[in-house]
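Quick note —
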Amino acid sequence: MIKAVKGSFKKYQEHVSAECEPSAKKAKLHQDSVGSKVDEQRSIQMGIDSAKKMLANAELLIAKGMKAKKFDDIESGQALLKEGQAKLASSLIKLEDSKKKKSCARL
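Predicted structure written out below.
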C-alpha cells in the first residue's frame, strides 16, 4: 500500500511539472514580447526627445545668427531645423504605428 501511495505521488508530481512547463514557456514568451515592446517604446521616446532638442538648438542658432547677422549660423540653424522636423515626424509615425499595433493586439 505504501508503494502504491509513493508511486501515485510520483506520478502526480510528474503530471504537475508537465502542466507547468508549457505555461512557463508561454510566460517567458509573453515576458520577452512585453520587454521588446517596452524597448521599442523607449527608443521611439528617445527619438522624439532627440528631435525636440534638435529643434530647440536650431531655434537658438537661428536667433543668435539673426542677432549677430551671421548668415552661416542662420543657414546651419535652418538645416538643423529641417532635420529635426523630419526626425520628429518619423518618430511620431513610429509611435502611432506602435499604438495601432497595441490596440489591434488587444482585440
